Amino acid sequence: MAALFWPLVAPRAVIVSPSDRLAETTGFDLLPAYRLHTGEEFSAVFAHRRVVRGQVFNLHYRPNALCSARIGFVVAKKLARRAVQRNLIKRIGREVFRLERASLPCCDLVLRLSASPKAVSRENLRAEVQMLFKRLPRG
């Protein structure tokens, strides 16, 4: 009689291998291949000295020989004191890049915070990043 009141056993978790995840990806995922990783890659973009400036961000760019754009972020503690704020800025930049990547020219990009974003809303930050991507030279 006691066996009738035992809770049901939870189903086992399904483990998905990394190769299965890559097979399911859409064209909008932000894979590691779409990001800048090393200091040398960031330095090469800064050394190219091409910039599109906005009110809060500067977008540094350098043409690459790859078939897609790649992005990196520089958010200084001096301008965004709290880690929560720095992470939010990077999340917004990653999301806009993820959505716009297919229409961007083949460039290495570095989105750099150039002014304190204290009085700027999330929507305005997102709109500025989109505007900077649209101002990139094509071709």
Describe this structure as you would to a colleague.
This protein is α+β, with helices and mostly antiparallel strands and 139 residues long. The chain has helices spanning 18-23, 39-48, 83-100, 122-134, and strands at residues 51-53, 57-63, 70-74, 107-113. A four-stranded mixed beta sheet has the order 1-2-4-3, with helices on both faces. α3 (83-100) links the parallel β3 and β4. α3 (83-100) packs across α4 (122-134). The termini are far apart. Mean pLDDT is 86; it is low at 19-25.
Provide the domain count. Answer: 1
Low-confidence stretches: 19-25
For the secondary structure, the number of strands is 4
**How much beta, percentage-wise?**
15-25%
**Biggest sheet: strand arrangement:** 1-2-4-3
Instruction: Report how far the terminal alpha carbons are from each other.
Output: 76 Å
Number of helices: 4
Rounded radius of gyration (Å): 20 Å
Based on the coordinates given, report the CATH architecture. Answer: 2-Layer Sandwich
What is the overall silhouette? Answer: globular
Structural class: alpha+beta
Which fold does the CATH topology refer to? Ribosomal Protein S5, domain 2
What does the average pLDDT come to? 86
Biggest sheet statistics: 4 strands, mixed
Query: What percent of the residues sit in helical stretches (DSSP H or I)?
Result: 25-40%
Subunit organisation of the chains = single chain
Helix-strand pattern: HHEEEHEH
CATH class: Alpha Beta
